[in-house]
Structure formats: structure tokens, C-alpha cells
Amino acid sequence: MSATELRDAILKHLEYSQGKDLAHASLYDMRMALTLAIRDKVIEPWFRATRATYAAQSKRVYYLSMEFLIGRLLEDAIMNVGLTESAREAVLGLGFDFEAVLNDEPDAALGNGGLGRLAACFLDSMSTLGCPAYGYGIRYEHGLFRQSFGPDGRQIETAEDWLRQSHGWEFERPEAAFRIGFGGTVAESGRSAVWTPESAVMAKAYDTPIVGWQGKWANTLRLWGAEPLRAFDLNAFNKGDFTGAAAPEALARTISRVLYPDDTTAQGKELRLKQEFFFTAASLRDILRRFASEHSDLSALSSRVAIQMNDTHPAIAGPELVRLLHDERGMEFDKAVETARACLGYTNHTLMPEALERWPETLMAQVLPRHMQIIERIDAGHARQYPSRTVSIVENGEVKMGELSFIMANKVNGVSALHTELVKDTVFAELHALHPDRIVNETNGVTPRRWVKGANPGLAGLITETIGEGWEDHLERLVELEPAIGDQGFRDRFAAIKAENKVALANWIGTEMGIPVNPDAMFDVQIKRFHEYKRQHLNILETIALWQEIRANPDAGWAPRVKIFGGKAAPGYVMAKEIIHLINNVARIINADKTTRELLTVVYPPNYNVTMAERLIPASDLSEQISTAGKEASGTGNMKFSLNGALTIGTLDGANVEIRDLVGAENFFLFGMTADEVVECRKTPDHAARAIAQSKRLKAAIEMIESGAFSHGDKAMYRGVTQNLRTHDYFTVCADFDSYWDAQRRVDRAWFQRDDWTRIAALNTARTGWFSSDRTIKGYMADIWKVAPMI
Ligand SMILES: *Cc1c(COP(=O)(O)O)cnc(C)c1O
């Protein structure tokens, strides 16, 4: 499609979809018209994919995820259908700034962090590979909260409202609606049971086409919105009770109203359980309806249907599928369990006990009475089959969703090599012994279309010039860059692209935050959700210690640094919010020190999201991946940084292990204890006090916080953080501090060998093509789903 043709298509939508002529079109109108013109280009591969799948009677993949952190779609879709240049020219020709049009799109934050972003990268890769697939989730009215900082530096949360404007990508499907019940009673009837729910809502489908690289294939992201069965109570309204009349509607819509902002903690809330059942049950009904339109023999279900549970959030899929097969379609119970299991896969994302979902048995029995019975029967069946086992799904009055997912899945996967081994040795050790073939590893990945080509066009151009076209969907080809890295000319180009990205980021930080930063300084970046295990406090303690040493000894060869933080804390996570508060105040004090200004700046732009990640990562020199070993299941931020030519300072945790193996130990700043050593360390009750006593820098940094230096003299302000470090320090910040400090000084020395730094940065790009989510999805297709690509 030429720029002229696209221009005509935009004008047509401006006129007939937006009802505007060009002279009166706003930025919003232009963005919507461009979105609709691009969406038109996606329809053809979308229909073609559906027809081809139908004609081939292919097995389909159903990816069930409570979260899809998709971010903006327009730039990505334009790139995938190969219209970037035409679109730029067309929009410019119509008198609009192309970047401004792209930036007008809201960032769809239907997820918290890594887990939701993984689901979004998987959608892109499944479409790129021609894997017939549907993503199923919830159409939250409000995505992840918007973060700002108060004048005192504390996090402020406000509701996000991406759906205030109409969502240009989606198609409403009123005909695809299912009644989802809750509560009520169960009556035995012969060999099965009849569940009569007490209340119900409608789940209505909204479809977004997701087009793959080069527009060869498009899958569907189907999100469910909750609606009342009946709009509102006209009788109450007529009697003047306007609020009462609207109450049932409000209650029903509550189910898809907000994304739970909790990251890695289980939420014991009835609404959360209802959300999980709501989208899982609607998806399963949709899946069975589609199956029934092509086949009649339900015992063949698993030859046509692969359902992936992204974490335990959709774990109710096991019992619900059994219920649909047994109660509603008359399949014998044990066969229904076998059939469901043959369809289901479960991805584990965390080992942390507080993050493994457990529901009180009483709540489960109250909200989903029939499912509670089915869970008990599955548990009993498993016990009968393995009489020596001690593990069970229901224990101490709680339903353990991890165990339920494991027992109801034919494959259980971890998300990095280390994590998968820990899954086998810790959380699911006994179940693994009983089912030794069930656990497999599928190391996470990221889509190179968004995270390299889209986010870093300069680097993408250099890659194409050096190794030719076609690396975007064969990212392992980046190894072909390696011979070129020996050329001074290539390294200079690589360094110049990084420098350009840094100038752009420095300008943005200047405009957005009013803080001048030197683009020649090292950009040292830690962006991710705030959590104690991710240890942003280790980073800020080192920052304080560094500032003190620079003041004491200004000429000791410090590498000039801009420390950049980004990330949100769950609103109820007090400790994480205190750490945010501390970082903002440390930044305020350090940035005001004129004597260290040239060497150290700390910036923390608010509201980290996908769009900000796309801006920051290509401009980063140093990637902070400093979690307590054994706690970060994989990480995907770490992969985005390496691909974009940042060096990593990190622990042996999650996929850091694989990154280090690939880029070479000599090209990775390793520090800290291993997962085993962390477990050992915790056996010494006063490990933190000992570490503080042994480290004068750490001691001074903690004491400086306690002196009130960052809190206008208020000595008690950060007691929560410092007391925890001194006494408990479960995440071993203190024990790892000196090792981290030393690694940072190795970073300083490496920074001054600038050409060598660039060489290592380029090696990071060349050697991490393995982290394409295409490779991950090929693994799922071969090992778990048993689905062949259609292109
Ligand atoms: C990649 C990404 C994450 C995950 O980052 P980790 O460092 O792996 O925790 C979280 N949020 C956003 C917006 C991302 O793009």
C-alpha cells in the first residue's frame, strides 16, 4: 500500500467513521482514522487465518491469562503490516506530526508487570509463527493505576481510564455472550449434579485482532466484559429510587471494573475469585462451542484444544471443564478428568509462598459450590491413585490452586532453567516425584518486533545493514553480527546509536522532570515493579554510599552516572511504598549537591509502563537485575536490555543465568550469593547485623538514612526500611551489599575503557537472539501444545 492509498484510506475513515473533515480533525480524530485504516489491513490475514485453521481442522491454542500488558498497539501494527514509511508520509502529508499521532494512543495496561507483558509478547509470537491461537482475558474498564509522586515524594495512585475514548482496535461481539453464575445450590440428579446459581452476570466478548510480523497471520485476543442480565430496575426507577435502580447493573459491571494492582501476592478477595471464574468459565464455554461446531466426539477434545493457564489465576479451568463435560454433557467423571487434563497446561511464575493462591474452602463452597465438590473428588481420586502421597489440594480449610493446577495439567512449566529446577526441588517436589514427566522448562522471551525494531530503530537499521533483512523473525541470526564487532567502524556506529538514544532520553527527562542530565554519563537503569525481592533498596543504599565516597574522595576515578529508577508498588504494599518514598528523597538531596552534580544524578520518572520501557531501554548502558537469588522466576526486562546493548549487573537468578551463559561470564557483572547460599545465610539469625558490622559503607549509608538526612531531620521516617534491614532482612540486602559495591566498581573501571564497553554491549545484542519469544513459543508448541505452525 502506497502512502497515497493509505492517505485516501485515512481520509475515508476521517469522514465516514469519525464524521470529521480534515480541516476540523483533532489529533484524536487523526489517530482513530489511522488506527481504523490500519485495522482494515489486518482483517484480510485475520479472516484468512480463521479459514485456514478451520479448513485444516487444526488444533487451536487457548491462552488464558488474567493479564495482558499490551501497551500501545498502533505503531506495532503499522510495523507488522509493513506500512511504517507510508504511514509517516501519509500522516505528514495531512498536516499532522506522526510521532504525536502515535503518542496519542492510550497505553493499555491490562496487567501489572512481567506476567502480563509475557502474555502480550506471546500473542505477537503466536501470530508471527502462524500458531492458531486465541488469547482470553478480561476487558478491565480501568487498567493498572496511574502513578504520580506527591510533593513529599510518596506514591499517589489514581484510576486509569483507557476506555474513556473508544478503543479503536476492538470489535464488540454481542452474539458471543455467556451467562456466568455464582453461588446457589447443587442438587444430585442420578450420577451427576445440577448447579442452580444464586446470581449471574453476562460475559460479553470484545475481539482485538493481533497481527504477526509481515502480516501473514492474525489471531484474536478475546476479552470479556461483565454486564448485568437485565439493564436496570425500571420499577425502582419509576418510584424515584434512581441509585437502587442502577445497583444491580453496577454490581455486575464490578467484575470487569478494575485490574487488581497486586503483584506477586495472592489476593484473598471474593471479587478476585469471581473475576477468575468469570473469564475462565466464559472462555471454556466459547471453546466448547467452537469445538462443537466442528466435531461431535468430546473424547477427542484434546486433539483439537490446548488450553494454557498463565499462572494459577485461571486454575478453576480444571474443575469447570470437568463440570461442563460431566454434569452438562454426561461424560463419565473419571473420563472427564482425563479429558480435561489432556487439554490443560499450567505455567508456574513464582515460588514465593505468599504469591501462591489459596482460597478458603468456605469461600469456594459459597461462590462455587459445585466446583468445591468437584475439587474434593479430584483430590480423592489422586489420593486413591497414589496412596503413599501426602500432598493434597484441600488442606487446613484451604484450596491450594498451585496443587490443583499441577494435578489437572498434563504439562507444568517453569519460565527459566533455574526456576524450573527450583520448581522441581521446592514447591512441587512431591508432585514432581509422583509425575516425573510433567514438569518442563520454557524460558521466557520477548518479541523483537516491539523491543528491538520498534523501540530502537537506529539499532535495527544497523543490524539490517550488517546482516541483511529477515532477522526480525529469526533472531538467532543476530550471532552473524559477531564478526563485525571486531571492526572499529561498526563499533563506532553502535556507540553513536546508543549516544543518540541517550540524548533523546536526556531531553525527555529534562522536559518531563526538569532535571538536567548529562547524556555522556553512564545511564544505570532499574525499571520493574517495586518489590523487596527485586531489591531497589540495595540499589539506593549503594547510591547513598557512592555519593558519600564521591564527596570524600572526588578524584578517585568515579564513572559519571545517572541512576534511573522506574516502577510502581502495589497500593497495599507498605514496605515497597516506603522504598519509593526514600528513593525520591535521596534523589532530591543528591541532585541538590553541586559538588557531586557532574558525577551523580538520580532520576525517577513516575508511571512506569510499556511505553516508558520502550523509551528507556534503548538508552540504557547498565541493566540492574539484582534480585535475591532464587526469587525472580525469569525476568524479561533483563532480556530487553541485553538485546538493546546494555551490560548487566546481576545475581545468578532467573534468566540472568542464561543471559550470562550466552554473553559470556567475562561480559557480565556478577555479584551476590547463589540461591543455595541465600538459604544457608538465612540459617544465621543475625546475618544482617553481621554484614552491617563488617561493612563500613553499608553501616554509614543506613545511619545516614536514620539521621534524618533524607527526611528533613525526621529520624523516624524510614524506620520501617532500616529496622527491617537491621533485624530481619529476609531478602539479604545487607549480606550482598559489599559484593554489589565491588561489582559496581568493576563497572566504573569498565566504563572508562569505552571502546571495549561498546564491544561488550554489541556482544550482548549479538548473543541474546535466543531470547526471542518466537523461540519460547516454538518450545510451547512442540513440548506442551503439540500444535504445528500454519505458515
Ligand atoms: C518487561 C516489563 C516488565 C517486566 O520487567 P522485569 O524486570 O522482568 O520485572 C514489567 N513492566 C513492563 C512495563 C515491562 O515492559
UniProtKB/TrEMBL annotation:
Domain of life: Bacteria
Catalytic activity entry: [(1->4)-alpha-D-glucosyl](n) + phosphate = [(1->4)-alpha-D-glucosyl](n-1) + alpha-D-glucose 1-phosphate
Enzyme Commission identifier(s): 2.4.1.1
GO biological process: glycogen catabolic process
Gene3D superfamilies hit by this protein: Glycogen Phosphorylase B (3.40.50.2000)
Cellular compartment(s): Cytoplasm
Enzyme class: transferase
Modified residues (N6-(pyridoxal phosphate)lysine): 640
CDD domains per record: GT35_Glycogen_Phosphorylase (cd04300)
Cofactor: pyridoxal 5'-phosphate
Main location: cytoplasm
Main function: Phosphorylase is an important allosteric enzyme in carbohydrate metabolism. Enzymes from different sources differ in their regulatory mechanisms and in their natural substrates. However, all known phosphorylases share catalytic and structural properties. Allosteric enzyme that catalyzes the rate-limiting step in glycogen catabolism, the phosphorolytic cleavage of glycogen to produce glucose-1-phosphate, and plays a central role in maintaining cellular and organismal glucose homeostasis.
Family as reported in the entry's similarity comment: Belongs to the glycogen phosphorylase family.
Name this protein carries in UniProt: Alpha-1,4 glucan phosphorylase
